[in-house]
């Protein structure tokens, strides 16, 4: 029992997974899409995450396994081309999240120290260097990765909660408070798609699934871990959105879109506040890269172990799964080729499809996992509707981003089809 984790640790895994680099990376993007309705956009995304977490609770209790989402999908569909394609998409979505976090790190870092004087070039340098550095740490020691996570979760939550408290107090004197008025909200479909583009800010709760087999008293603690983590993060994000939109004119938010949270601290705390939030963003995004590299390499290992990817991916390189190196290289490619909105869109499309599949598994196996069918069905329908709304709206405004997103999904399934048809010798 001494190796078991408790409720607090499980909640911190969920909160740490969600409040990683996501909020720092996508807040400005959310405001550009939803304007005064940004808090509502975060709430809509949070509601979908909450329904999905119900399916995760039931599946985690029925199938406690370190494979987490990979295990749930295989239980629901067996080991075939569809489940393999979805699991491949999970691995690729981890890589996209890494690119998002690295992109956020690259956007904030030049505000502290410019390297070349060219902001775009500096961002690419910082994004690339932090991925390489985090990969080196993962190779050096997994214990170091865990220690970084322990401290980073505390630091970023203390700073963000401090930002919320001071920010709410400062709103009484803000000249931008009327931006939150209903007249400044975008139309409902734009609020929905705004929430879906930044859905990646919520995806990290699924990491709890990987730790359930190590959790004390799972029947009692699994539901609490998921629901407490998701509800806390919904509340935190909505309040951060209120403070940001209420503190800064839309024009200033647009100018600082990639590092807007730091800019939002200026009206209350001046340059000191800007610097503190920038440091918090760097710590958060670095810790998120660290943890997601570890998680991504484990996902590729689990998929290969289940013979849904070549078995060579279970081999080790410098005492770590070879997937770690592949994950890092692909992250470097994506972060240096795609813009933030395209990265965020691709990540959201990927996770909405994965969560729709998990919700469907919960619905399909409702009697076996003791789930209420109507809740899992609503979760499934919400994910499907949100995916379609996101694809349709983004195709009009960001056709390249949505084409890349759909191309990634297609490649994941083609890759699985080719492997199963021509290379899989296990069956």
SSE order in H/E notation?
Answer: HHHHHHHHHHHHEEHHHHH
Poorly predicted sequence stretches spanning 5 or more consecutive residues: none
Strand order of the largest sheet: 1-2
Helix share, percent: over 70%
What's the overall average pLDDT, rounded?
88
Largest sheet: 2 strands, antiparallel
- What radius of gyration results from the CA coordinates? 20 Å
* Strand segment count: 2
Structural class: mainly alpha
| Proportion of beta-strand residues | under 5%
**What is the overall silhouette?**
globular
> How many helices in DSSP terms?
17
Intertermini distance: 38 Å
Describe this entry's structure for a reader.
This protein is mainly α. The chain has 17 helices and two strands. It has a two-stranded antiparallel sheet with strand order 1-2. Strand 1 (316-317) and strand 2 (320-321) form a beta hairpin. Helix 7 (142-170) packs antiparallel against helix 12 (266-305). The chain is globular.
Protein traits:
17 helices; 1% strand; mainly alpha; 427 residues; 2 strands; single chain; two-stranded antiparallel ribbon
Describe the secondary structure blueprint for this structure.
Elements: H1 7-18, H2 22-34, H3 38-62, H4 69-77, H5 81-108, H6 119-140, H7 142-170, H8 188-197, H9 218-247, H10 250-255, H11 260-264, H12 266-305, E1 316-317, E2 320-321, H13 322-337, H14 340-364, H15 366-369, H16 373-397, H17 399-423
Antiparallel strand pairs: 1-2
């Amino acid at each position: 029992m001494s190796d078991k984790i408790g409720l607090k640790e499980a909640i911190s895994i969920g909160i740490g997974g969600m409040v990683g680099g996501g909020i720092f990376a996508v807040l400005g993007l959310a405001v550009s899409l939803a304007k005064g309705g940004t808090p509502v956009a975060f709430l809509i995304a949070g509601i979908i995450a909450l329904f999905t977490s119900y399916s995760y609770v039931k599946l985690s209790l029925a199938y406690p396994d370190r494979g987490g989402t990979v295990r749930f999908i295989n239980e629901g569909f067996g080991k075939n081309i569809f489940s393999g394609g979805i699991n491949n998409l999970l691995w690729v979505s981890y890589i996209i999240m890494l690119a998002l976090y690295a992109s956020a790190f690259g956007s904030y870092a030049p505000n502290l120290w410019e390297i070349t004087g060219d902001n775009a070039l500096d961002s690419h340098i910082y994004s690339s260097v932090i991925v390489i550095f985090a990969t080196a740490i993962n190779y050096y020691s997994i214990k170091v990765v865990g220690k970084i996570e322990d401290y980073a979760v505390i630091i970023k939550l203390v700073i963000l909660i401090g930002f919320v408290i001071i920010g709410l107090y400062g709103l009484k004197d803000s000249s931008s408070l009327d931006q939150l008025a209903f007249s400044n909200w975008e139309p409902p479909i734009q609020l929905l798609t705004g929430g879906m583009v930044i859905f990646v800010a919520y995806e990290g709760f699924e990491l709890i699934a990987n730790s359930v087999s190590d959790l004390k008293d799972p029947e009692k603690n699994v539901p609490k871990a998921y629901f407490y983590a998701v509800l806390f993060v919904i509340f935190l994000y909505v309040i951060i959105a209120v403070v940001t939109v209420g503190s800064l004119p839309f024009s200033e938010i647009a100018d600082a879109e990639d590092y807007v949270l730091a800019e939002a601290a200026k009206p209350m705390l001046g340059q000191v506040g800007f610097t503190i939030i920038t440091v918090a963003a760097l710590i958060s995004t670095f810790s998120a890269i660290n943890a997601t590299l570890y998680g991504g390499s484990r996902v590729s290992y689990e998929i290969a172990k289940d013979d849904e990817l070549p078995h060579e991916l279970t081999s080790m390189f410098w005492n770590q799964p070879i997937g770690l190196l592949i994950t890092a290289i692909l992250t470097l490619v994506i972060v240096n080729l795609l813009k933030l909105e395209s990265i965020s869109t691709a990540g959201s499309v990927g996770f909405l499809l994965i969560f729709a599949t998990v919700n469907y598994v919960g619905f399909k196996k409702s009697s076996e996992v003791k789930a209420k069918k109507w809740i899992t069905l609503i979760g499934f329908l919400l994910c499907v509707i949100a995916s379609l709304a996101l694809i349709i709206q983004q195709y009009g405004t960001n056709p390249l981003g949505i084409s890349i997103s759909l191309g990634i999904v297609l490649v994941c399934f083609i890759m699985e089809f080719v492997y199963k048809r021509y290379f899989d010798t296990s069956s």
